Amino acid sequence: MxxxxxxxxxxxxxxxxxxxxxxRITARDASQLLGVTRRQIFRLLQAYRSGGPAALLSKKRGxxxxxxxxAVVRTEALALIKANYADxxxxxxxxxxxxxxxxxxxxxxxxxxxxADGIWQDRRQRQRRAYQPRYRRDCVGELIxxxxxxxxxxxxxxxxxxxxxxxxxxxxDFWFIVATRSEDEAEIRTGQSAGRxxxxxx
Length: 202
Fold this sequence. Notes:
Layout (H helix, E strand, L loop, with lengths): L7 H14 L5 H8 L3 H14 L19 H14 L5 H12 L5 H11 L28 E9 L4 E6 L2 E3 L6 E4 L6 E4 L13
Antiparallel strand pairs: 1-2, 2-3, 4-5
């Protein structure tokens, strides 16, 4: 038993021609169903009667396209990409092959070659970067984010302060923890006037 791989239009063509042979429909009806001329229907019927469904398969199946590149050219291009542009994307790699090596390929061609050779991965194949979640604190103000740089935010008051996620504060206006040499110890430093805050822009 021979198994044939056929496309959906080819399967429909077999069913229609089978009905024509069985005289359930006419050649004119078959031409309307398949969208071809009556002359083409008679050609298909002749091929179907002589070779069966296998005669209706496309003769181009399994053959290389006339516009395809040879294996030598493909191998040379991939060797250049691996040696010089392994960390490049397909677009930039195609530009460099054209500018520096005189090999002119389409971006899609280079992309397919790099995907098949494992040099490039599309978005579906790339693994998403894992980020450690930072859960919410129980109390407001328990975690204050400091940019670490003091600036002259309030020029009229001649005060240097740090920007935080709770507004702009002076360093002596809030509590902060400084890690010491020992991993198990922490030094808590406090300012002189706790609780004084200044909103950004005021």
